Amino acid sequence: MDAEGIRRSLEERGLRCTPQRYAVMEVLVEHGGHPTAGEIFEAVNRADPRSSRATTYNNLRDLVQAGLVREVAAEGRAARFDAKGMRHHHFICDRCGRVEDMEWYEVPRPGSGTLGKRTVRECELIVRGLCAKCAARRAAR
């Protein structure tokens, strides 16, 4: 996504394209992985030392709420963020905490009677285990 694409995506979701919000989106788009909020703040701060941690975190929250960014929660570890536009699932390594993208496939929705009055927007799958690198280390022992 280029600069105009970032601006357009923010505006389409009803968000103002502030320099700080733009910088957070730019870091996420260029990163290509799943950085933590702290890593995003450091990257934004390198480009603009006036940017505060609170502003970065607030912009991340707004981007998640707007559906432009996904927050991937890993138990016992810092949440990671993802701005890839394509739908995909995630694999989280129990040992190193690496978050990897997995191909999207439809996950069966829970039966309507099991959710009470809740409504489902989407079912996302998070698979946990050992990544290829950690599994190879374990097998080598």
Short structural summary:
It is built from 5 helices and 5 strands. It has 141 residues and is α+β, with helices and mostly antiparallel strands.
3D structure, described in words:
- Helix content is 40%, strand content 13%.
- By secondary structure, it is of the alpha+beta class.
- A 3-stranded mixed sheet has the order 4-3-5, with no helix packed on it. A two-stranded antiparallel sheet has the order 1-2.
- The chain is globular.
- The model has no long low-confidence stretch (mean pLDDT 88).
Helix content: 25-40%
Overall shape: globular
Our count of helices gives 5
Which percent range describes the beta-strand content? 5-15%
Low-confidence stretches: none
Number of strands: 5
Describe the strand arrangement of the main beta sheet, using strand numbers: 4-3-5
| Radius of gyration computed on alpha carbons | 17 Å
In this structure, how is the largest beta sheet organized?
3 strands, mixed
Task: Give the ordered list of helices and strands.
Answer: HHHHEEEEEH
| Gap from first CA to last CA | 43 Å
Rounded mean pLDDT score: 88
Structural class: alpha+beta
Q: What are the key terms here?
A:
globular; alpha+beta; 5 strands; 5 helices; 141 residues
Write the layout of secondary structure elements.
Blueprint: H1 3-12, H2 19-31, H3 37-47, H4 53-65, E1 70-72, E2 80-82, E3 89-93, E4 99-102, E5 126-129, H5 132-140
